[in-house]
TrEMBL record:
Domain Myb-like as annotated: residue spans: 450-497
Keyword Nucleus in annotation: yes
InterPro entries xrefs: Homeodomain-like_sf (IPR009057), Myb_dom (IPR017930), SANT/Myb (IPR001005)
Keywords carried by this UniProt record: Nucleus
Main location, first listed in the record: nucleus
Organism: Gossypium tomentosum (Hawaiian cotton)
Subcellular location: Nucleus
Lineage: Eukaryota, Viridiplantae, Streptophyta, Embryophyta, Tracheophyta
Region (Disordered): 44-119
Protein name stated in the entry: Uncharacterized protein
Limits of the HTH myb-type domain: 442-501
One GO cellular component term: nucleus
Entry-linked Gene3D superfamilies: 1.10.246.220
Stretches with biased composition (Low complexity): 54-65
DNA sequence: GTTAGGG
DNA sequence: CCCTAAC
């Protein structure tokens, strides 16, 4: 997934697994059990602007109880690969009040940039609620990582690969795929990346390092590659079927919307209008044709229409790309970063059902891709992928079909994964649920759970730009979340406010919650309340100041002095 | 095109 | 989340 700036955004487990499985394959087994006994949370605390220390014991990260000394090596490697000194300076602008501590290893690596402000690592319980501080994923056990993962994405994961988990979480928290660092310390939603180039040179490479290096390199390459792809995505690419090539076809408008921000693919019209017309005209003729076309297999008449998936090989490695087609634009994206279809879009499966031919092609294509992989994947990996993608009882055909439309990245787990749905029903669309309307019609309603990282972003956005400036926040803080509209942000904020005020007073309310869809760390709720209060009083004093614009111009930036 | 609110 | 009325 790419946002307007060409930044990368996390994709699904499956997708990652898919790709990483290829890269790591058998190597995976080496570190699959990696678990460190000495799980030290290296989380520094930051004092909130209001002076309130953001300290709270989190709800649930249990101290790691497992102590498999065996795997020490790997985790040790993971940590020590990171030169303590060199850290990116990119985050320095937020440092002002900030970087209080860092997860430093007692490793006297050569310091390249002066990391003057860094302090020692505080060994404490990993506390995920300290969201404003740094979150150090490095020393967490798998179990803890799972917790964090769940908190971050609102779903469970079965992946046991620590590195993977860390990267995944980091990506989630960071909203970036630029998590190639070998150390995972997240601060202020950004990955505090320690220089890893030096790292690899300075560190004696151990057993597991290879795969790690690969992963890192892969990531970086991917980034570079992606940007280049974006740049020349107007040129034709070639289809090359190599060893590691997978070809997939997906419809994605988000991509287009994101990559070519200038072009507003979807119109602000209400969806119900679309759907009404959709329901009434069963023919779909126009659309079907379009969709078939965009699927990208027939020689298109126009230049930009179908773009063959191409795989780019990077230094011997191969990056799998996907052909994303949307509204006539084919855009290739590395599978890993594929994003889910944006909400206002039509559901492709519905279209497909009217054009079996198109579907057939797609299916075979995908199958082909998988077959290719299958040969390289050990059964374990393969099964894992399959398992993640389809329900056990699903037939292979179903799987193929399913994988075509599903691809639901972020919250598959929460949405009960992929349940088998009648291929002919349009209810099959991922996270689009049909709801009966009063008028007797049915309307699709999609639900996408807010992830912790999203909430964090929202809160941050509000703190920076002020509640009410949703479009701003949307543009600046949610650039990568194409599916969250400003209205969504507004609504979520409303809910957060409700939650923060309803819960904190007695604190018992928290427990009374039946099924808190996602437990929002108290620290966040706290912050929400703070912000709410600040903004509330910020608007009241207007009487005296006479000019709202006095503070309006600067918005609520005063809230977080120096904060970015 | 955005925002605030009710549903 | 969806839909609308009001900017």
């Amino acid at each position: 997934m790419v946002d307007g700036n060409g930044r990368l955004v996390p994709a699904t487990d499956d997708e990652l697994m898919e790709v990483e499985g290829l890269l790591e394959n058998e190597k995976r087994e080496t570190h699959i059990v990696a678990d460190t006994g000495q799980a030290l949370g290296c989380i520094s605390n930051e004092v909130s602007p209001s002076g309130m220390p953001q300290l709270e014991s989190s709800e649930g990260l249990s101290q790691s109880e497992n102590t498999e000394a065996d795997t020490e090596k790997l985790s040790a490697y993971l940590e020590e690969t990171v030169p303590s000194g060199a850290k990116s300076s990119s985050d320095d602008h937020v440092t002002q009040s900030g970087r209080v501590g860092e997860c430093l290893k007692p490793l006297d690596g050569p310091l390249e940039g002066g990391s003057s402000t860094s302090t020692g690592c505080i060994s404490s319980k990993p506390d995920f609620s300290k969201l404003k501080g740094e979150i150090c994923l490095d020393n967490l056990s798998i179990k803890e990582l799972h917790e964090v993962f769940k908190a971050t994405f609102g779903r469970d994961t079965t992946v046991k690969d620590k590195l993977w988990l860390k990267r995944r979480i980091a990506m989630g928290l960071t909203n970036s795929c630029d998590v190639s660092a070998t150390s995972f310390v997240i601060k202020d939603n950004k990955l505090v990346k320690k220089d890893n180039e030096d790292g690899f040179n300075n560190v004696n490479l151990g057993a597991g390092k290879e795969h790690l290096a690969v992963a890192v390199e892969y990531n970086e390459d991917l980034l570079n590659n992606l940007s280049s792809q974006i740049d020349d995505h107007q040129t034709t690419s070639e289809v090359r079927l190599g060893n590691n090539v997978v070809e997939n076809n997906f419809a994605s408008e988000d991509l287009a919307a994101d990559q070519r921000a200038a072009k507003r693919v979807r119109k602000p019209t209400k969806r119900y209008i679309e759907e009404l017309s959709e329901a009434e005209s069963k023919e779909y003729s126009g659309r079907s044709i379009a969709s078939t076309k965009s699927i990208g297999f027939r020689p298109l008449s126009s230049k930009a229409h179908a773009r063959p998936a191409r795989n780019v090989s990077l230094e011997g490695r191969t990056v799998i790309t996907r052909l994303d087609s949307l509204g006539g634009f084919g855009i290739q994206v590395p599978c890993v970063y594929r994003i889910r279809r944006s909400r206002p879009r039509k559901n492709v499966t519905a279209l497909l059902k009217f054009h079996p031919s198109g579907m057939g092609m797609t299916a075979t294509f995908i199958k082909k891709g998988f077959d290719v992989h299958g040969s390289q994947m050990d059964n374990g990996s393969m099964n894992k992928v399959l398992e993640a993608k389809s329900t056990p009882e699903q037939a292979p055909e179903q799987f193929v079909a399913e994988s075509k439309k599903e691809t639901t990245p972020t919250d598959m787990g929460q949405n009960m994964g992929l349940k088998y749905v009648d291929p002919s029903g349009d209810t099959s669309d991922d996270n689009v649920v049909t709801v009966p309307t009063a008028k007797g019609g049915i309307r699709r309603k999609h639900h996408r759970a807010w992830t912790l990282s999203e909430v964090m972003k929202l809160v941050e956005g509000v703190s920076k730009y002020g509640a009410g400036r949703w479009s701003e926040i949307k543009r600046l803080a949610f650039a990568s979340y194409s599916y969250r509209t400003s209205v969504d942000l507004k609504d979520k904020w409303r809910n957060l406010l409700k939650a923060s005020f309803a819960q904190t007073p007695t604190d018992k309310g928290a427990n009374s919650r039946k099924h808190p869809s996602m437990l929002i760390p108290a620290s966040i709720l706290l912050r929400v309340r703070e912000l709410a209060e600040m903004q509330a009083q910020a608007s009241l004093p207007n009487l005296s100041t006479g000019k709202l614009s006095a503070c309006g111009g600067g918005s609520v930036n005063e809230t977080r002095p120096g904060y970015l």
